[in-house]
Structure formats: structure tokens, C-alpha cells
Amino acid sequence: MKKIIVLMLACITLVQFAFAQDTSHEARMQWWREARFGMFIHWGVYAVPAGTYNGQKINRIGEWIMNRGKIPVAEYQAFARQFNPVLYDPEAWVKAAKDAGMKYIVITAKHHDGFALFNSKASTWDVADATPYKKDLLKPLADACRKYGIRLGFYYSQAQDWNNPGGAASRKPASEGWANPDSAKIDAYTAAHNGHWDPAQETKTMSQYMNDVAVPQVRELLSNYGDVAVLWWDTPTGMTDEFAAKLDAELKRQPMIITNDRLKRPNYPGDYKTPEQRIPNLSELDGKDWETCMTMNETWGYKSYANNWKSVETLVRNLIDIASKGGNYLLNVGPKADGTFPQESIDILKGMGAWMKLNGESIYGTKASPLAPLTWGRCTKKQSANGTTLYLHVFDWPADGRLLVPGLKNTALNAQLLANNTKCKVENTADGVVISLPAKAPDAIASVVKLAVKGNVANTVDAKEKMKTGALD
User: Fold this and answer.
1) 377-468 belongs to CATH 3.20.20.80
2) Residue 319 in this model has a pLDDT that exceeds 80
3) Could you tell me which CATH class the domain 36-362 is placed in?
4) Reduced to 3 states, what is the DSSP secondary structure of residue 27?
């Protein structure tokens, strides 16, 4: 009998522990699920060459210039002597994010080039020791985020590090980067040296790098800057479960921190998934939290000639599409070496902010659409004890002024336009709810109709059917 009682108590304890863990996860994720929109910042020494090395443009993304151009360690480190961001104004950065409607910031505390934007005791390859600026860049940003109510997260390249010896290196061929006559020779070297192209990168083992640089720097980031909302890992090249466990153990310093899925797959899945530069199809979603990270142009880190800027309309509609599928949007800015945002990024942020000022209610704190894919736009929802609010984002305004929400059987109560509070007539029909709209859309990008209905709106189509109906990426 005693054994049975002990066993029962053990089972109860396990259930309680599991519930507590799940509750902890839910509590940690609450703000993030409500935020929906954040700013990614890729900033570092790579902003100095700005995409050009030895007079030649290096292909692909700007922050990979050292790897793509196979720049020797000593040559790349010389760029740090020109990294002097005297125009850096962290309050202006945070206010730009806040005014755009963003709720959190994630900045590259250390990218793959190994350069730390903070004063690290684990390496001299940082802004305080290697540049004329000589000041920690993250401390004033953390202060500004607290002042303006923006949560701060740190991106940290835990495995790839092309400057601190022992760090891993992805095997990107030199032939893909630029017209180097020695590309074949370089590619053969990197193939034989685990992606490294300079002997200086191999004077220590990865285990030494992990113990001497990565773990201590993560400890510094989680200890010296107040509350850290997110730890955004990237590219687990060469990672082992042993290395991952050491880094994961440091997270206890920030009990409410959340992490992404890039520490070490599959045993360290983190709190959310991170599709990059794309918005998933509905058929890909599996109920887990997710966040699309995306550039405003064709690069993350600043490149002087990267001018393929997305329009405000495209980016706002991306945000709407992502929210309608229950995800977050982490939109990138790549500052210049002097500490300023490119003017194009500033203009885009202002444009998005203007739309969010009127329509943010339809994004923040919303859940994924319960409706089948809509031909004229997207839908988000909020649930309450009194019923459901559907936010109908209309991309294509109906010429006849009648907006059909197909398949919606709930009793419609009322509807209004968020942009100007115009009330709209609603009626239930056999085909769904019909909303009578003004002749002209109040917003050319996306006009939002706030529709209140009775009860909970059940999903009108399952995932397989959503795939058949051609949901957009």
C-alpha cells in the first residue's frame, strides 16, 4: 500500500511539474504573442566595407562579406579602425521602432564575423577594444528600450565565428562571392579545413572557443544589460549537444527569456520557429509559435549599393498576412558604420507607422484567422466572453460596395472601418456575412473592417483544405 501511495504521489508531482513548465512557457510567450511586430538590427564591422572588398562588389548579403570574399583575419580586423559610429543615437533608433508600431528589438550582439557590439572580457575583438569608438553600444540601447517600453533581445552567433580562433565557419565557396582568380585554390583549402580559409582561424579548437568566448559572452549578455527578452541564436554549424547544453544553461540567468530554434537542432527546439525571408503557407503551420524574419531590401547588413527596397504596401501586407496566420514579423534594418539608419529604412518605418497608428488594433494581441483563405484580403481575430471580433483587412475593395465574408454563420452584430470609424451595415445571408462598404477605400494599402459577431467563430476549413484553396506565401 505504501508503495502505491508513493507511486501516486510521484505521478501527481510529475503532472504538477509538467503543468508548471507549460505554464511557465505560456507566461514567457504572452508578451511576444501580443507584440506581433519587431525590429531586427544587423550592425557590425561589415558596415565599413559596405559590400565592397579590394574594389570589387562581393555577392550576396553584406554581413557575410568576410566569408564570401574570404578576407584574411588581419585584413578584416583592420576595418574596425574605421568603425566609429559617432552619430549613433540609440534613443532615435528605439523611437523609430516604437513609432513604426514595433514592440521589440533584436540586435546582433555578435554576428558570424565574431565582432561584439559590447565591451566583452572574453575577447578583444569588440567595439571597446578594437575601434576608435571604444564604448559599449548595447548598454545605451538597453537603457533607451527601458525608457520607451520596448523589449530588447540579443542575436548571438553561437557557433560560427570567423575571427575568434576555434569558431566554426560555413563552407561557402569563394567562387560564389567574387571574381577571385584564386577561387579554386581557396575553395580547396576551405574544403580541407572545415570551411576556414585563414590559418589564424584554427589556432584553437571549437571546444576552446566555446569555453573561452561563446559561453562567457552569453553570460555577459544575460548579466549586464537588465532584462533580456529574447536570445536569438543563429546557424548551429559544428554545434554538438554538449556545446548547446553549456549555452542553454546560461539562460537560467533570465528566467523569463525566450529563445528561437537555432541553437542546436533537433534537441534544442527553443520557444518558436524562424522561417527566413518568407511567409509560410498555411499547410506548413503545425500549431507552434513562429516568426518570419525579413530584410527591407536584399541584405541584412548594410551594403552601399543594395537598393532593391520593398514598398511600404508590400511590408504592411506582409505583416497582415503573417498576423493572419498567427505569426510574428521581425523586420530588419542595417545601420551604416556611422550609426545612422539608411534614409530608405527611415521612410519605410514612418510609412508602416502611419498605417499601424490607425490599424494596430487589428494586429496586436490577435489570433490567426478562423476563415478559409479570402480572395480579397486577410483576417485576424480576438476572442472574448461576449463574442468574437474579426478584423477584415481588405486589399481589393469591392466595386459594388458589398464585402462577402464567405462561410461565416455567426450572427453579425456590427461593423465599422478602423481608419475613420465609419459604421457599416451588416447582414447574414446563406453565403455568409455581407458588409456594405463606402464607394472608396479609406486606405490604399489595406482598409480594416472591424466586425463583431456572436459566439466563437469555428474554423471553417481544415489545413488540408486551406492548402487546396491556394493560401499565399
Assistant:
1) no
2) yes
3) alpha beta
4) helix
